[in-house]
Amino acid sequence: MRILGVIPARYHSQRLPGKVLLSLRGKPIVQHVYERARPVFGDDLLVATDDMRVVEAMEKIGGRAIMTRSTHTSGTERVGEVAERFVYDAYVNIQADEPFIETDHLKKLIQLLSKHPLASLMARINKVEDLLSPSVVKVVVAKDGRALYFSRSLVPHPRDVPLTSQEVLARYGFFRHIGLYGYHRSVLMEIVTLSPSPLEEAEQLEQLRWLYHGYSIWLQETFYRGIGIDTQEDYETAQHLAQTLL
Prior knowledge:
The chain is α/β, with parallel strands linked by helices and 246 residues long. It is 35% helix and 22% strand. The chain has ten helices and eleven strands. The protein has helices at residues 29-41, 52-60, 75-85, 103-113, 128-132, 167-171, 185-191, 198-203, 207-212, 232-245, and strands spanning 3-9, 23-24, 27-28, 45-49, 65-67, 90-93, 118-124, 138-141, 147-151, 175-184, 218-221. Strands 1, 4, 5, 6, 7, 8, 9, 10 and 11 form a nine-stranded mixed sheet that branches. The protein has a two-stranded antiparallel ribbon with strand order 2-3. The radius of gyration is 17 Å and the shape is globular.
């Protein structure tokens, strides 16, 4: 199976404009992502962006980057445009604001993608504050690994245990979604044509559109210690984490 790794890098982010070019230990965030993915994908890797500043930053380090339309509302739509131009069997969507992504994550996703046409990853939640944070997307899965629902709220919601108690974590299995996606080409070209759903609009999570329209997303558990950078506070946290993780 020929797989293309795509890093959708939207420069004009609403909450933290230009975040993909913010510096961590002397390198733009998107460069860290690219360098971590390169050992897995080799030359089958590119950054897809809406701004020439990102293209220039990648070309400066010998990376591969292309311009895509500025009208995309999600990373998946941007990957879909890439798929129109570069024909592969499957594509992996690598978040441009995840500088601590592990090569093992990418390898696990590729392995899952060999079995299922739409795949992603999850990790066990070990902190109560993460359970209550809307920035941490929770996922509930069936016993075979298919996603049942994604939410910024706490799901499942324990009825008889205080939410501030560590017992919540010990008694129930809670998982955070890791924002990596793998798609077979045929599925990708279908889901980018789907109409938005009320669930997606409520939670602002693109994957809920796919569930709403009847697609299955298969997840595999992995270890996670990073952070997605969406806000100035996230960036400040990432600067501290970078001292040990980069």
